[in-house]
Specification:
By secondary structure, the chain is of the alpha/beta class. The protein has 22 helices and 14 strands. It has helices at 2-41, 116-119, 122-148, 164-172, 228-234, 278-287, 306-315, 335-349, 351-355, 357-360, 366-371, 375-390, 392-478, 480-484, 495-540, 556-566, 575-578, 592-616, 618-628, 630-654, 656-674, 677-747, and strands at residues 50-53, 58-60, 70-72, 91-95, 106-109, 152-158, 188-193, 202-206, 221-222, 241-246, 266-270, 293-299, 323-327, 361-363. It is rod-shaped. The two termini are 19 Å apart.
Length: 753
């Protein structure tokens, strides 16, 4: 009764450990998914790369309290090469030396002068790590399924022709699987007790393991026992697996059957040889992740081959204990030497297996067992039964615990590495920000100064154009008669033509002076642009932007041509002058004050002359009047008056050219003044100067603004990266704490009662 109670207690305890391990595996998978999401969307996880060129592999074993050892595999135990691999003498392996499950194997062509960090981008490493994380998640899913599965699966594997099928036959004590001196197993053969098939012995060829259902005949093909050898050796139908339901022949020992043991359902899975081909080897590597117990069969004549070593190293990520059977030991003459050499290899490949070699490593002959029994085989069978059934924690839970512990150890290591990387990134960014701050502040000052100077050049140029134009044209307007004085006078008969020529000369003179103002404006614009170009050259000397002015060009000729094209065409200098015609008033000076003053002066002169003559000759006139008479004297006086008037008229006619020049100059000046001629052209040229200079000023200011914006963008990018690094620092610090806490919880599940 006490034995039954003890068994029930152990079952409940084992079930509780399974539940706890299931919970911790879910937590571990959640951490991996979170890391993968963070790696893809927020921060490429920093992966430590260390060169292990021309050396052996370095791997980390379990981080369990009892398993915490680091093993350096000798160079003689390097990974087996295939035709696709690069020889170690021409390659280098980059890896995180303190990682095990999340270790990335990267083989690159070796260049002695090259830097791997330069040839592998951070994003590429992140993608590789993301794929590795996804693989780990898939493996944990398989571990969860294995823990939930109440049965135990034993994978019998090894190299070609090692006697795997013979060993399975010996364990069930029936010659079920075909065996030959040549390799004969081409697909996985799972041998289970017939009680799982309602007690019926059958062989099911399964095209798809995932879809297989023994109650659904469409998911398998029944194979007759006499056809089994052909199906196993050829597999023409490309089945994934054979499911063999059989009754195990009862053992004469006290331990009873392995398959039908009354505790858990056990399945023996015979596999193709490791070095059969690459596809079968890959399938075997993937299949071992679904297995609780690995029985590795070694041919005593060959020891461990490179493919066998590679398989054990891979399986060691989760299985600290490998059940090893050295078959065909009866064919060895110096058995002690063979045993010593095999154990030396096991010590390097699986230290914990070597530590428990008395129970886990067996030197047997399956042929002897089938022929009539063997004590060594019986002991091996007993140890396998104990390892599978009685030590289910070690065979079923320990691999999951080991794998989770290794994953969490790697997560802690990566988290610590990334906390350090984030801290270094923050320090680097802070240093860059500090170093760039004086330059940024100086750039702001230079932008302000350049903007003010550009505005000053623009305002000064426009003011100078306005001042010069207003003063010059005002002077021109006051001295229009000077241009008329240069016209030749052809006499009274050519007076009309003369007047037309005078008007034309005045108009052309005005046009010339306006053109002179235009040339001065061009010169001022060119000078202002040269000053702005010099400021632009100073800006380019800062080294931030290499672009030149988009408006205008570098040479003075280009600047002049651009300026001339931007000065508006003169077309017409005055609307009034375009329609101006000669008028009668242009020939008559109606300025009475000016004319009467002239005549008065002339009359006064003549009167004075006449008075002097009359006074001097008064007595002569009296004497003449008395002699000639009064009437004759009066006629002489009238004649003198007519001569005086005629002289005055002659004087006026002789001054007609001056009158025309004066009258036309006055009328043109009045017309220009009425239409605001001076102000119009001053405003026009000021506007044109502003239009020609301002794009250069704007371009200079725009380029400085671009420099400031580029600097601010870099600063914003640095700040963004610093925030991301700070967030990453916090995230990985918290991740490390979670992983450590979860790792302690995983390690707390022990084999003790």
């Amino acid at each position: 009764m006490s034995t039954t109670n003890s068994g029930e207690f152990q079952e409940r305890l084992f079930a509780d450990k399974c539940r706890r391990m299931h919970t911790h595996l879910l937590g571990t998978r959640s951490l991996l998914r979170d890391i993968g999401e963070y790696n893809r969307t927020k921060w490429p996880v920093h992966y430590p790369l260390a060169r292990l060129a021309h050396g052996g592999l370095k791997r980390s074993s379990s981080v369990l309290a009892s398993d915490a050892t680091m093993v350096d595999t000798p160079q003689a135990l390097r990974r087996a090469q295939t035709t696709d691999e690069i020889p170690d003498s021409e390659a280098r392996l980059l890896d995180g030396s303190d990682l095990s499950v999340l270790k990335l194997d990267l083989r690159l062509s070796y260049h002695a002068e090259s830097d791997v960090m330069g040839s592998l981008e951070e994003s590429s490493i992140a993608r590789l790590l993301d794929e590795r994380l996804a693989q780990c998640e898939g493996h944990i899913d398989k571990l969860l399924a294995r823990i939930a599965d109440k049965s135990s699966k034993i994978l019998v594997t090894g190299d070609l022709n090692a006697g795997k099928s013979t060993l399975v036959n010996a364990l069930v004590r029936r010659d079920i699987l075909p065996r030959d001196q040549q390799p004969c197993t081409m697909l996985f053969c799972e041998v289970v007790d017939a009680s799982l098939n309602a007690g019926v012995e059958e062989i099911h060829a399964v095209p798809s393991i995932a879809a297989y259902d023994r109650n659904d005949a469409s998911t398998f093909v029944r194979v007759q026992s006499e056809d089994l050898e052909d199906v196993v050796m050829e597999n023409d139908e490309h089945y994934q697996q054979l499911k063999i339901y059989t009754h195990e022949r009862q053992s004469e020992s006290e331990h009873g059957s392995l398959l039908h043991n009354g505790v858990v359902d056990v399945a023996l899975i015979d596999s193709p040889g490791l070095n059969r081909d690459s596809l079968k080897t890959t399938q075997l590597f993937a299949r071992q992740e679904e297995i609780d117990v690995v029985v590795f069969v070694v041919n005593a004549e060959n020891h461990f081959t490179l493919s066998g070593q590679d398989f054990l190293l891979n399986a060691g990520n989760e299985k600290a204990h490998i059940f090893i059977v050295v078959n065909r030991f009866d064919a060895i003459r110096r058995r002690d030497r063979c045993e010593r050499m095999v154990l030396d290899q096991i010590r390097d490949l699986s230290p914990l297996t070597y530590a428990e070699r008395a129970d886990l490593v067996h030197f047997v002959s399956a042929h002897e067992q089938l022929a009539g029994g063997s004590a060594a085989f019986a002991r091996m069978e007993h140890c396998l039964r104990s390892f599978t059934l009685e030590q289910r924690f070690k065979s079923k839970l320990a691999p999951a615990q080991r794998y989770a512990s290794n994953v969490l150890h790697d997560v802690c290591f990566l988290a610590a590495e990334n906390v350090g990387a984030a801290t270094r990134r923050i320090q680097e960014i802070n240093s860059v920000l500090r170093d760039n701050m004086p330059r940024y502040e100086a750039l702001l000052e230079q932008r302000t100064d350049a903007s003010q100077r550009a505005e000053h050049v623009l305002d000064a140029g426009c003011a100078e154009v306005r001042r010069h134009t207003a003063a010059h044209l005002a002077t021109t307007q006051l001295h229009l008669q000077d241009a008329a004085d240069k016209v030749a006078y052809g006499g009274l008969l050519a007076l009309w033509t003369y007047a037309e020529n005078v008007l034309l000369a005045i108009v052309r003179h005005v046009e010339h002076e306006v053109a002179e103002c235009d040339r001065f404006a061009c010169f001022t614009i060119q000078h202002a642009r040269a000053e702005l170009a010099e400021l632009e050259a100073q800006r380019r000397s800062l080294g931030e932007l290499s672009d030149s002015l988009h408006v205008g060009a570098e040479s003075n000729d280009d600047l002049t041509s651009v300026t001339a094209s931007q000065i508006a065409s003169i077309g017409t200098i005055s609307n009034a002058l375009d329609t101006a015609q000669l008028e009668l008033s242009d020939f008559i000076d109606l300025d009475l004050g000016r004319n009467w003053a002239t005549l008065t002066s002339l009359s006064a002169s003549l009167g004075l002359f006449a008075s002097k003559s009359v006074a001097a000759n008064a007595f002569s006139l009296l004497r003449l009047s008395s002699s000639v008479g009064t009437t004759t004297a009066r006629r002489m006086v009238a004649t003198a008056a007519v001569l005086i008037g005629a002289g005055s008229v002659f004087y006026i006619v002789s001054d007609m050219d001056a009158t025309v020049r004066r009258r036309l100059a006055q009328r043109v000046a009045l017309m220009l003044d009425n239409e605001g001629f001076v102000e119009h052209h001053a405003e026009r040229l000021t506007t044109e100067a502003s239009r020609a200079i301002r794009p250069f000023a704007w371009h200079l200011q725009h380029n400085f603004q671009r420099m400031v914006e580029a600097e601010e963008h870099k600063r914003a990018d640095h700040l963004h990266r610093r925030r991301a690094a700070q967030d990453s620092q916090i995230y990985f610090d918290e991740l490390r704490a979670k992983a450590q806490e979860l790792s302690l919880a995983v390690r707390s599940i022990t084999a003790d009662l």
